[in-house]
């Protein structure tokens, strides 16, 4: 009996991973109540793609994807925020290791969407860029956290 329960648990989690990650949106984004993210093979590696799912089950592809950038992208978060309207956001993260440039850390990219219907959502690029950043070390041991990179370094003359 114990083996059957373990098989069901591990089998179900493997099925979830193969199907993708489904997140309930609260508040709903337009008529979307859920979002599903899954990885698919591209010529550069695994690409993370998403679909917004309406109440009736109809799917709308999210225009942006997380392409492999020297490593596989991972979804760190997806949610909605209610302001003047409801916004949908998701964030991807990549590990960054580039010894030649002295980079070691994580690159975060956030996508922010608004729109009056799911067929015509738009990426709010300036807000998306403001919420995207690098966290880790740069050359000469300088630490950069969430895009703060203004550090005065001594220079040789």
Overview of this protein structure:
By secondary structure, the chain is α+β, with helices and mostly antiparallel strands. It has one domain (21-144). It is built from two helices and ten strands. Strands 5, 6, 7, 8, 9 and 10 form a six-stranded antiparallel beta sheet that branches. Strands 1-2-3-4 form a four-stranded antiparallel beta sheet. Strand 6 (86-98) and strand 7 form a beta hairpin. The longest helix is centred in the first third of the chain and has 18 residues, at 2-19. The chain is globular, with a radius of gyration of 19 Å.
Brief write-up:
The chain is α+β, with helices and mostly antiparallel strands and 157 residues long. The chain contains two helices and ten strands; from the N terminus they run αββββββββαββ.
Largest sheet: 6 strands, antiparallel
Principal-axis shape: globular
The DSSP helix count reads: 2
* Helix-residue proportion: 10-25%
Order of helices and strands: HEEEEEEEEHEE
Distance between the termini: 75 Å
Which stretches are poorly predicted, pLDDT < 50 over at least 5 residues? 1-18, 148-157
Number of domains: 1
Mean pLDDT: 79
The proportion of strand residues reads over 45%
Helix-and-strand structural type: alpha+beta
Number of strands: 10
Radius of gyration over alpha carbons?
A: 19 Å
């Amino acid at each position: 009996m114990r083996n059957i329960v373990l098989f069901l648990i591990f089998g179900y989690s493997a099925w979830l991973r193969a199907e993708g990650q489904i997140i309930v949106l609260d508040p709903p984004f337009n008529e979307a109540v859920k979002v599903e993210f899954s990885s698919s093979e591209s010529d550069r590696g695994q690409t993370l793609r998403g679909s917004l799912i309406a109440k009736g089950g109809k799917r709308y592809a999210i225009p942006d994807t997380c392409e492999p950038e020297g490593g596989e992208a991972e979804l760190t978060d997806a949610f909605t925020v209610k302001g003047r309207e409801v916004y949908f956001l998701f964030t991807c993260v990549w590990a960054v290791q580039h010894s030649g440039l002295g980079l070691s850390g994580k690159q975060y990219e956030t996508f922010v969407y608004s729109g009056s219907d799911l067929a015509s959502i738009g990426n709010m690029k300036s807000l998306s860029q403001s919420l995207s950043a690098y966290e880790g070390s740069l050359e000469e041991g300088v630490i950069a956290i969430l895009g703060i990179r203004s550090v005065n370094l001594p220079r040789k003359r």
